[in-house]
Specification:
The protein has 300 residues and is of the alpha/beta class. It has one domain: Rossmann fold. Helix content is 30%, strand content 22%. It has 11 helices and 13 strands. The strands form 3 sheets. Strands 1-2-4-13-12-11 form a 6-stranded mixed beta sheet. Strands 3-5-10-7-6 form a 5-stranded mixed beta sheet. The longest helix has 14 residues. The chain is globular and about 50 Å long. The protein starts with a helix and ends with a helix. About 11% of the residues have low confidence.
Length: 300
């Protein structure tokens, strides 16, 4: 009992945390900082011009780090606006009743492994490969004729794996390019040429980077011809098959046409090689802005 009494006495005499705090604490100002979840990254705010937030809609490359190469005044003065949708996501059933649902329907380059060639028209082959029913192709056809713009990044890529696994060899490649060259696109003929990258080993190739200097003497579209001096065409795969619709060429270098269009009813079909738009030493950005501006404003 005596031991218990001593322990009780010691605890009762020990200073509590509250007693120590009351003796030693001094008044202090407490600051509370509020940090928005949106500002926790290195990019504190998104000051990207509105015109670039969805630009360019036609590119398969990410645009998250793309801020453009021109001063802010250039973008603030440009009032270009558009409604665009990728062909596989387009609401064709609604498009039947609303011609103005989109300004542009577009397509990115195609990998040969995803493309089935069974028709004489390339558009029908692409639609079949993308599981787009013929009824939607008919709606697309009418929509273009009524004033819509079909924008095609006109390349078909073949990898080194395809070539080495005997899906393609020189003979098959020649037959393939001849077959595509004999096709039409909504009844319009096509031009076709190929570019082949340098092989590193059996399955790997060096990415082809080709500088294109457009011919300024072709009629084409003057506002594009005069503002574009050099373009960068990067080919990530072994072989690139580039096609252009036979109509009005607006980008040409030597005997190679890299951009062309036809009027189709009140609308247009545009084919253009997938030029890089982010490289500051080339004119891919202004090319796409000028071409899009021309297409949207030159409506019949």
């Amino acid at each position: 009992m005596a031991g218990i009494a001593i322990i009780f006495f010691m605890f009762s005499c020990a200073p509590t945390a509250k007693t120590v705090s009351d003796v030693s604490a001094t008044p202090e100002d407490i600051y509370i900082f509020e940090v928005s979840p949106n500002n926790t990254s290195r990019e504190i705010q998104d000051d990207k011009p509105d015109i670039l937030k969805g630009f360019p809609f036609i590119s398969a490359h990410p645009v998250s780090g793309f801020t453009g190469k021109f001063p802010p005044e250039f973008y603030s003065a440009n009032k270009l606006r558009w409604r665009a949708e990728y062909i596989t996501f387009a609401d064709f059933w609604n498009l039947r009743h609303n011609q103005h649902l989109y300004d542009v329907i577009y397509m990115n380059p195609v990998w040969i492994g995803a493309l089935t060639l069974r028709e004489d028209d390339l558009m029908k082959n692409i639609a079949y490969s993308y599981n787009i029913p013929s009824e939607k192709v008919m709606i697309l056809d009418k929509w273009i004729k009524d004033g819509g713009i079909l924008w095609i990044e006109s390349a078909i890529f073949i990898s080194s794996y395809d070539y080495n696994l005997n899906k393609f060899n020189d003979e098959k490649m020649s037959a393939l390019t001849n077959s595509i060259g004999a096709m039409t696109l909504f009844g319009n003929n096509l031009r076709v040429h190929t570019l082949t990258a340098r092989r590193i080993d059996e399955f790997n190739v060096e990415k082809l980077s080709l500088k294109i200097v457009p011919d300024k003497n072709i009629p084409g579209i003057r506002q594009i011809n005069q503002s574009v001096n050099a373009l960068l065409l990067e080919q990530p795969d072994y072989i690139g098959i580039y096609f252009s619709i036979v109509g009005v060429p607006f980008l040409q270098s030597g005997d190679k046409v890299y951009g062309s269009y036809v009027k189709y009813g009140k609308g247009k079909i545009i084919t253009i090689a997938p030029f890089d738009f982010k490289h500051a030493h080339y004119d891919g950005e202004i090319l796409r802005l000028d071409l899009l501006s021309w297409a949207l404003n030159d409506r019949t």
